[in-house]
């Protein structure tokens, strides 16, 4: 098991300070996720907007690790369910718990699992080199797409068939998300190099 970036950058001497640093890091990634949700571009041919959230989810998880990365996204969803305006602004989709029942609910509910997957791979050193970082991010993004596609096909109202769900919820985003992924995957190896913390 490799230390995460958070492990490498925080102190270890006092358990209380360690817990405070971890809590602060989780809150920071939660806030970044909420900010990224506001950078949202509605698309006329799909109810799913284009946002920067998935890349923030995956990068945050790579820095925090599986457990804390997942916690940051559970907290994000909890804030949204409580009614805080942390979900992407939309003239059609409500804030609050009802958002999870709408067409984008599957994507949102997949974030903790995508974060866990990316963080788990980071704990095994996948965030240290570019190609393995791409692989870790791709695994996390696949979880997001799988959650969104499944929800659109089976649980949204009205339910869509698999082909219709893919056309509305995956196909429009594949090229753009792949480009974002290729850029985002370079961040963690660069940070490890710049900080000189990659001592394994």
Q: Would you give an account of this structure?
A:
- The chain has 200 residues and is mostly helical.
- It has one domain (5-195): Arp2/3 complex 21 kDa subunit ARPC3 (Orthogonal Bundle), CATH 1.10.1760.20.
- It is 64% helix and 2% strand.
- It has helices spanning 5-9, 15-38, 53-64, 66-81, 105-122, 130-155, 162-169, 174-184, 187-195; strands spanning 40-41, 50-51.
- The chain has a two-stranded antiparallel sheet.
In the CATH hierarchy, what is the class?
Answer: Mainly Alpha
Q: What Rg do the Cα atoms give?
A: 17 Å
Straight-line distance between termini = 9 Å
Q: What characteristic shape results from the CA principal axes?
A: globular
Helix % is: 55-70%
- Overall domain count: 1
Structural class: mainly alpha
**CATH architecture grouping:** Orthogonal Bundle
CATH fold field value: Arp2/3 complex 21 kDa subunit ARPC3
Q: What percent strand?
A: under 5%
- Major beta sheet summary: 2 strands, antiparallel
User: Helix count, per DSSP?
Assistant: 9
The SSE string, one letter per element, is HHEEHHHHHHH
Widest sheet, order of strands:
1-2
Quick description:
With 200 residues, the chain is mainly alpha-helical. 64% of the residues lie in helices and 2% in strands.
Annotate the secondary structure layout.
Layout: H1 5-9, H2 15-38, E1 40-41, E2 50-51, H3 53-64, H4 66-81, H5 105-122, H6 130-155, H7 162-169, H8 174-184, H9 187-195
Antiparallel strand pairs: 1-2
Helix pairs in contact: 2-3, 2-4, 3-4, 3-5, 3-6, 4-5, 5-6, 6-7, 6-8
């Amino acid at each position: 098991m490799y230390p995460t970036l958070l492990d490498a950058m925080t102190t270890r001497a006092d358990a209380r300070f360690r817990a405070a640093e971890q809590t602060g890091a989780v809150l920071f990634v939660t806030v970044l996720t909420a900010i990224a949700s506001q950078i949202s571009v509605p698309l006329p041919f799909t109810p799913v907007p284009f946002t920067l959230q998935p890349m923030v989810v995956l990068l945050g998880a790579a820095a925090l690790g599986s457990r804390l990365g997942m916690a940051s996204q559970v907290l994000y969803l909890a804030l949204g369910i409580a009614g805080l305006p942390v979900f992407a602004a939309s003239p059609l989709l409500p804030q609050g718990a009802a958002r999870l029942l709408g067409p984008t609910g599957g994507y949102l509910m997949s974030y903790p699992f995508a974060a866990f997957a990316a963080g788990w791979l980071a704990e095994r050193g996948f965030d240290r080199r570019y190609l393995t970082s791409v692989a870790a991010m791709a695994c996390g993004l696949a979880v997001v797409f799988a959650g969104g596609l499944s929800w659109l096909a089976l649980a949204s109202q009205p339910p869509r068939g698999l082909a219709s769900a893919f056309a509305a919820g995956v196909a429009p985003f594949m090229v753009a998300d792949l480009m974002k992924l290729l850029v985002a995957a370079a961040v963690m190896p660069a940070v490890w190099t710049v900080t000189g913390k990659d001592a394994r």
